[in-house]
Design brief:
Helix content is 28%, strand content 10%. The protein is an alpha/beta fold and 249 residues long. The strands form two sheets. Strands 4-3-5-6 form a four-stranded parallel β-sheet. The chain has a two-stranded antiparallel ribbon with strand order 1-2. A hairpin with a 2-residue loop joins strand 1 and strand 2.
Length: 249
């Protein structure tokens, strides 16, 4: 599924460009991960074809109480500091635009999705000196939601919520240390993650099932998932996807 491997002339290096520790390399031979990876998932969020994956970003089994904001926190934050019903991920920068849209859809637009900025990102290995790791995805998600009529106050956003630096874990801890994972919950998470990726294929039903052997089709899974989610969100509010989201001849 890697565009850079299947079609080197495309020169797709979005995963490598997103890698703050600069330990990911892509060429026609494949994707190479060198020493220094901090498991932040920023490469996954940047990949347009979902060729990469990393544990820790499955959609939450439960969300915040109905009518209340869903707060998203980094694993480096002690679990006790995360608000009730919060969604904890290895790094906020690993949340793709489609993941943010899915979190909004799960809240049904009743309450916002709030990414908590603890003030630690500037000293984290996942920071690449271009602002908050999740800022670009949050802005893109907000613009897409606004295009289907969602009010700005309801879109996912970053919110300052500083904590003392002394509380920060030096590395991304194993979340199982905070919340024991049952067999049922483990397999449930795996199924939800596969469903999340597969459901983005709904828009491609009209595409040929078996392309010619000479054609190596690489589908833009991330874009397909965004459009699928936006279509559902727009339908729920009685609007339609704007033409500006599609190519024009």
């Amino acid at each position: 599924m890697c565009l850079g491997v299947r079609h080197p002339q495309a020169r797709c290096r979005q995963c490598a460009d997103a890698c703050a520790p600069h330990c990911l390399q892509v060429d026609e031979q494949g994707v190479r991960l060198e020493a220094g990876c901090v498991d932040c998932g920023r490469c996954v969020a940047g990949c347009p074809t979902r060729a990469l994956s990393i544990p820790g970003f499955a959609l939450p089994e439960t969300t915040a109480p109905e009518g209340r904001a869903l707060f998203v926190d980094c694993w480096r934050v002690p679990a006790a500091q995360t608000p009730e019903g919060g969604y904890r991920v290895p790094c906020l920068g690993g949340l793709s635009v489609s993941r943010l849209l899915a979190l909004y859809a799960d809240r049904k637009g009743v309450a916002p999705v709030v990414l908590l900025d603890r003030g630690w990102c500037g000293k984290c290995e996942a920071w690449n000196r271009s602002g908050h790791p999740a800022a670009a995805q949050v802005d893109d998600a907000a613009q897409l939601l606004q295009s289907v009529g969602v009010l700005d106050a309801r879109t996912p956003h970053l919110s300052p919520a500083a904590l003392p630096n002394a509380l920060a874990s030096p590395v991304h801890p194993d979340p199982l240390a905070h919340a024991p994972l049952s067999r049922r919950r483990f397999f449930g998470s795996a199924v939800r993650e596969m469903t999340f990726v597969a459901s983005g294929a709904a828009i491609s039903e009209g595409m040929p099932k078996t392309p010619p052997a000479a054609v190596q089709r690489v589908r833009p899974v991330e874009r397909m998932k965004r459009l699928s989610l936006l279509a559902d969100i727009a339908a729920a509010s009685g609007t339609e996807l704007p033409a500006s989201l599609f190519p024009a001849v």
